[in-house]
């Protein structure tokens, strides 16, 4: 499944590059962004979850040389993680925040006029975990007596793989002024790497990030 997704992404980028139109005045812009995240993780065996709220922010560089087509590179701080759903288990709470420095590299496909644009961004992303934090209403060293169906192996489990990778994509709108732009974007990140150990002898076969983000950006056009 992961190989199919990566192959499809590469093919999509090649098709867009081939079909891009020439004779377009290049654009080069830099800027910053800030927004919020809604995160869950894919765990196998599964854990009942709600979305964990976090933040994202960083710097962006965008280069457009073709009509309707360009590239974006970002350097972001992003909070991933999960918030467990104890609705059938008792009055407990548990969440874990995973804080990453991330580098997305995306194709930028846009449409519209010189003042207003819609766009779609899509591409690979890599990240590195810089910290994580468990927040619970119970003692993680002396767990309550949960039911037999409740998964608790994840508590106190260390993060084994700090390097993360996956695919991100989204869309939004851009309002352009003379030398600047305001951008509102929604984005989804599909993690392909596992942060817990995933060998056959390990407990979790899958432990990957899945995150929705909404962010507002300001871009300064330098060219």
Structure write-up:
The protein contains 1 helix and 9 strands. With 223 residues, the protein is mainly β. The chain has an 8-stranded antiparallel β-barrel with strand order 1-3-4-5-6-7-8-9. The chain is elongated and about 65 Å long.
Radius of gyration over alpha carbons? 20 Å
Can you list the strand order of the major beta sheet?
A: 1-3-4-5-6-7-8-9
Number of helices: 1
Mean pLDDT: 90
Number of strands: 9
First-to-last CA distance: 41 Å
What is the oligomeric state here?
Answer: single chain
Secondary structure class reads mainly beta
What share of the residues does DSSP label as strand, in percent?
over 45%
Succession of helices and strands: HEEEEEEEEE
Largest sheet, in brief, is: 8 strands, antiparallel, barrel
- In which range does the helix fraction lie? under 10%
Contiguous low-pLDDT stretches (5 residues minimum) are 15-21
Judging from the principal axes of the Cα atoms, what is the shape? elongated
In short:
The chain has 223 residues and is mainly beta. It is built from one helix and nine strands.
Describe the secondary-structure layout.
Blueprint: H1 2-19, E1 27-44, E2 49-50, E3 52-66, E4 69-84, E5 94-112, E6 116-136, E7 163-176, E8 180-191, E9 206-221
Antiparallel strand pairs: 1-3, 1-9, 2-4, 3-4, 4-5, 5-6, 6-7, 7-8, 8-9
Relevant terms:
223 residues; mainly beta; 8-stranded antiparallel β-barrel; 1 helix
